[in-house]
Amino acid sequence: MNRQLVVALLALATVLAGVPAPAAAAVDQTAQQQTAQCTFPMTVTDATGTEVTITDDPERVVTTNPSAAQTMWELGASDEVVGVSQYAMYLDGASEKGNVSGSGGLNVEAVIGLEPDLVLVPNSSYNAEPDRVGQLRSADISVVVFESGKSLDAVANKTERVGRMTGNCEAGVERAEEMRDSMANMEQALDGVERPVGLNSFFGYTSGSETFISDIMTTAGLRNGAAEANLTGFAQINEELVVDMNPEYIVVPDHAPVPSSPAYNSTTAIQKGNVIVIEANKLQQPAPRAIEASEAILEAVHPDAYERYQQLENESATESTENATETTTAADATETDAAESTATTESSESTTESDAPGFGVVAGLAAIGAVVLLARRR
After folding, report:
1. Mind listing the pLDDT tens digit for each residue in 82-133?
2. Which domains does the chain carry?
3. Whether this model's pTM surpasses 0.90
4. What is the distance in angstroms between the CA of the first residue and the CA of the last residue of the chain?
5. How far, in Å, are 74, 90, 151, 240 from residue 216 at the CA level?
6. How do strand 275-278 and strand 205-207 relate by DSSP bridges?
7. Distance from CA of residue 85 to its chain's centroid?
8. Which one, of 168, 130, 167, lies nearest residue 55 by Cα?
């Protein structure tokens, strides 16, 4: 390469180095990436294997079970809900929504009358009345049936998914991450702590392995005696097993009586008064507030670990706030750079060629081509 070409290329590189990057385009691309998962129409495959297309961002949502309703409330999207079941009336403002419960279960006519854009059906509702879900689908209503939540992590995933399907992506991700952070903080707070045996009891039933209630208990530092006795799902428990298990703690929802029988009265839990009563809306619904049930158990069983957990939660909250501030600051800076870039571009376009301080990108590339061509011809 001759000396003239080298000099020309060096000069051109210096000019191009001063050309601002297309910041506005970068901002648009980032925004698109952040909102891509909330783009409609959206097609999802639900727990029944049915492909459901949600045409537009739903403005009218019906929830057939309190866990789905609680999830929408936790996402700050209660205003989008037009129908709930009778068991969701504990939620603020739920009494103002349409009641879709009937004497025999889901009231199909009531749901159709609310003209929903989307109906959210937890697996428990579907298993009880699949024909009614079929009737809703026959009425051209988008119905999504969810899998059974078998862990707190599954609940967090469902929360994120509900956010995505209802156009509340950011809220869904944020609430799910809060749950995951809390689970991680409990695990850290319980490191090295001995875990006593616990038993969930409600009306002669218990929660075995592969249930989110079992995970609520173990996340909070209990061993689930029912799971260790090879009980799976929600199952009846006989008193002989209770005696053999001898739980040190019994966890009861607030709408169920504390078990009282010779078998239960012989347990360490009853004799020491180690009965933990928790709001049923937190303990028995696979929804975001389930993490509060774990917190209540942790506080009752491991008070020292609970204090460590609170410290970790405060640190997580502080870190989240700082990250949010940094993100906002970075976004503001990017917007400022984009505005300055636009102003510079407009200013350059308004000047004459003789007034311009240097080449634009296109002109620069053309100059490179000309220089190379000139060098080749010489």
Report:
1. 999 999 999 999 999 999 999 889 999 999 999 999 999 998 778 888 999 9
2. 1-19+360-378 (no CATH), 35-181 (3.40.50.1980), 194-301 (3.40.50.1980)
3. no
4. 11
5. 18, 21, 8, 25
6. unpaired
7. 22
8. 167
